[in-house]
Write a structure and sequence with these properties.
Layout lengths: L25 H31 L4 H13 L2 H14 L2 H15 L2 H5 L3 H29 L5 H30 L4 H21 L15 H6 L4 H15 L4 H12 L10 H22 L1 H21 L4 H26 L8 H29 L2 H21 L35
Helix pairs in contact: 1-2, 1-6, 1-7, 1-8, 2-6, 2-15, 3-4, 3-6, 3-15, 4-6, 4-8, 6-15, 7-12, 7-14, 10-15, 11-14, 12-13, 12-14, 13-14, 13-16, 15-16
């Protein structure tokens, strides 16, 4: 894991343009551990649902697409509420705790609804509503605790710990299914217990950075409504939404890999392990790279890697090498986009509206991915998986080319015509709202 020497927030970068490393704040590590246990819990359910739905309940691709889309998009609008509440109260920790608690409570519903697809959908919605409520306040806590020049690395460390949990989730499901057979309630109860551990860590080890009421502007609903009019946020959110519309749900990618390799249905929950392992290894290096060369470049490159993964699935190449290639590209996609987008956007939003600004982008992206997943499920049901991956690969390439041709704007503090790492440049100065410059 990434820990290194201390660097003051306002100290200029080295003259050769290289960033000096920074110690990850304790708040970021604590939030990473919260996400670790929460993601073990969440990924147990996410890895288990495709097997449970397709092979346990006998549902089809359309049902899988609807539920996987619901898993992605349920509670997306609550991201806006969570961001606004965090900004208005200046207590992002309290709002984040409410979200983590709601997700934990949602785990109680899974063993109660049995095999009813509608009931499973309701449980997924409650679980994901908690995720929507907590996402923006959590990322605002990370941003507030971290010097601007090290945001990419800090988000990388958080996402690496988060992904370590995602890595263990499918292992736990596989072990439980092997031990208890079709006693599916054991999966859901274990998931609940792990989610509660995350809530306890958040309550005991994460601190809010309290701001005196007279020292911060009052946040109103009108401020939140006007946020999308700000150019940097508007363009970034538009691109994130556009690319989300042509992103298929992870469940379909794993089903495609399973069928390419001819593995049994019982191995399906293990396939996310490869994606999570790549994400775990690559999250911090790609976060640090984003601090150096610019987050937008890394974000767009990540979607290009996802398009390559879809193309491999569309080609229907058989065998373990092709399957490993798809999973490698899928993991690199997440490492290059998840935390990198938030690290890129956070310094471009006024500090007192930061959680709301992050929530606007997260909501657009989540809703778009929900629509993309449902659309992919409909295509796969009417055509087949290969045809659906072909269509989405082509659309994703078009989106990547558009984002490359018309980027949202120059990285703050970078001189026109100067590439990162070539000459001294302006590595520190006045930032968008925080008073320091974001390292690029």
């Amino acid at each position: 894991m990434y820990l290194s020497t201390t660097r003051a927030a306002g100290r200029p970068a080295a003259a050769n343009g290289r960033l000096r490393s920074a110690r990850v704040p304790a708040t970021v590590v604590a939030l990473g551990m919260v996400s670790f246990f929460t993601d073990v819990s969440a990924e147990m359910v996410a890895a288990f649902l495709p097997m449970y739905l397709l092979y346990g309940l006998g549902t089809g691709f359309l049902h899988l697409g609807l539920l996987d889309g619901l898993y992605t998009g349920a509670g997306a609008l609550l991201r806006l509420a969570g961001g606004h509440l965090a900004d208005r109260s200046a207590r992002p920790k309290a709002v984040a705790m409410a979200g983590y608690g709601l997700s934990a409570a949602g785990k109680l519903l899974f063993p109660l609804v049995g095999g009813a697809v509608a009931g499973i959908g309701a449980a997924v919605a409650v679980d994901r509503a908690g995720k929507g409520l907590r996402a923006a306040p959590r990322d605002a806590l990370i941003t507030a605790a971290t010097p601007p020049h090290a945001l990419g690395a800090a988000f990388g460390v958080h996402r690496a710990l988060d992904t370590a949990g995602a890595l263990l989730g499918p292992v736990a499901v596989f072990a439980l299914v092997a031990a208890v057979g079709d006693a599916y309630d054991a999966v859901f109860v274990t998931s609940l217990c792990l989610a509660m551990i995350g809530v306890v860590i958040l309550a005991c080890f994460v601190r809010d950075r309290r701001v005196a009421p007279e020292a911060r502007p009052r946040v109103s609903l009108r401020d939140g409504r006007l946020l999308p009019a700000r150019r940097p946020l508007r363009r970034v959110a538009a691109y994130a939404t556009m690319l989300g519309l042509v992103t298929a749900g992870d469940a379909f990618l794993f089903v495609g890999v399973q069928r390419q390799t001819g593995l049994g249905a019982a191995t399906l929950p293990l396939l996310p392990l490869a994606t999570s392992l790549v994400f775990l290894v690559a999250a911090v290096p790609l976060g640090k790279l984003a601090d150096r060369v610019g987050g937008w470049r890394i974000f767009v490159a990540g979607h290009a890697l996802l398009a390559a993964a879809y193309a491999l699935l569309a080609a229907a190449w058989q065998g373990p090498v092709a399957a490993l290639g798809v999973l490698l590209l899928h993991g690199l996609f997440y490492a290059a986009t998840d935390g990198v987008l938030m690290a890129y956007l956070a310094p471009r939003v006024p500090e007192h509206l930061r959680a709301s600004g992050l929530a606007v982008t997260q909501t657009g992206q989540a809703l778009a991915r929900t629509g993309g997943t449902i659309g992919f499920g409909a295509l796969a049901a009417s055509w087949d998986l290969r045809g659906a991956f072909t269509a989405f690969a082509a659309l994703l390439v078009a989106g990547v080319l558009t984002a490359c041709a018309f980027p949202p704007g120059r990285e703050p503090g970078r001189e026109p015509g100067r590439e990162p790492g070539h000459g001294p440049g302006r590595d520190a100065g006045r930032g968008p709202d925080s008073g320091t410059e974001t390292a690029s």
